[in-house]
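Readers outside the structure-tokenisation community will struggle with the description of the input data as it stands. What matters is that the chain and its backbone geometry are given together, residue for residue. For illustration, here is how one protein appears when written out as sequence plus structure tokens:

…
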Amino acid sequence: MPFMPPKEYKTEAKPIWCPGCGDFAVLAALYQAFSALDIDPTKTVIVSGIGCSSRLPVFVKSYGFHTVHGRTLPVATGIKLANPELTVLAMGGDGDAFAIGGGHIPHAARRNVDITYIVMDNFIYGLTKGQTSPTTGSQEGTGHGFKLTPTNPHGQWEEPLNPLAMLLTYGASFVARGYSAKPKPLAEVYQAAIRHKGFSFVQVLSPCVVFNKTYDELDAAIIPLEGKHDTSDFRAAMDLAWDTQTEHLGIFYQKERPTLTDRMAAIGTKSNPEQRAGDLSKLIAKYR
């Protein structure tokens, strides 16, 4: 029996997303995953930045940290290093993650911080009325979403970022994609991501029904991997990531390697025994 049924992970706060927003399913899948994994909410922290998606921690019965724009990963990293026993998740959207917060992703990935980073990608800035985001589709038809936005009224000529290819290149040890219209497999991806020891990245296609409704477009492009792909094959994972005509769903890549916490613990064993014991008096005395 699960530690708690999914509904017990809900707080009294009601989600305030627009009706039909994909983030509702993202949240529901998270409740299901937490229940299936027997997640203890008193030992769980969800960190978020800015945007529609970043409101999510308020709706989950756990500890939460709604930090500043783009700084989700540094805060989540600090929490995990301070208390490695915690289950730490980071939440964001395509703007918060890949624009102002984009510089933090390669370092969290290469350090292999043991956190799960879930990015709800709707290919637009939804909270601030529909401006172009780093993943908005281009005028040439690359990517998803409409081509005219308040910040690009004559069309989007920039090529959109490829989040999965980015994370694979940066060295993330777990890379996956889910879809808000497929909540059951999305919950299964969450479970695998949270169980994975290391930096787990999950891109969730989560359409904005007000400024960038892409359900029909995405439905036509979806192909679940469903065991057809070797998740240890990096080159195959990269080939799938660069197949921009198809939205493959599932785990693209997974590899076990030492986490940042593991490496920090190993460094600690090499330090001065007196310092490890917490006695810094002799060290301090040198500078008096």
User: Anything to note?
Assistant: DSSP finds eleven helices and eight strands in the chain. The two ends are 59 Å apart (CA to CA). The chain has two domains: 6-257, 259-288.
